[in-house]
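Priority: low. Protein: Copper acquisition factor BIM1-like domain-containing protein. Input follows.
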Amino acid sequence: MRFTSAAIFSGLLTVVSAHFQLQYPAPRGPFVEPNEINFCDGYANAVSNRTEFPISGGFFSLNSEHPQWTLGVIVSTVQDPDNFANFTDSNGNEQTAVPFFQTSGEGAFCAPINLSDLTSVSLKAGMNVTLQWIFDGGDGELFQCADLTLADIPAPTNVSCSNATNAAVTPLTSAPAFTSSAASPSNTSNGAPSTAVLSLSGVLGAMAAVMALL
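Result:
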């Protein structure tokens, strides 16, 4: 994914020296460090055993290995999304689940995600969706996906939601609105690399919910 409106984003896919690991909801497959620069960490297909996820009052957690970073989450309602275009609406606008923001700190990070309140796409309980986390530590974009079934259930109490630091969260003033020419991953082999060439522009709204959590 290419970011053109913030200086922290590189113009090319590069070899990255730091990483992140999605903890909850469960990612599409085991973390594969060399593939993290690819769409959905290189996993081509949605999983059959989707995570049941709260449509309201949910949260996500990850581990950051970078001291300063940017993150956003996009959503697809396609049953088996395999490229970035599947995360856009009919007009080519990205379907944002968590607006892009900057923060700092290595270690655990947790933030709320309320899928029932999205304006970019209408979601309801019973739908299958895929979320894609887009992480940039300044030296390249990293991607991980989670395949979910939305439900009217509370957030799990047996999953940790904590933050390693009290670092401020700063919403970006500009954010992706992309058209995609991303190559589709192979449907015969999960973990197969995919590549993306994306043009980006747009305006980002406030991220009050995330800021309130920290």
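The helical segments are 208-213. DSSP finds one helix and eleven strands in the chain.
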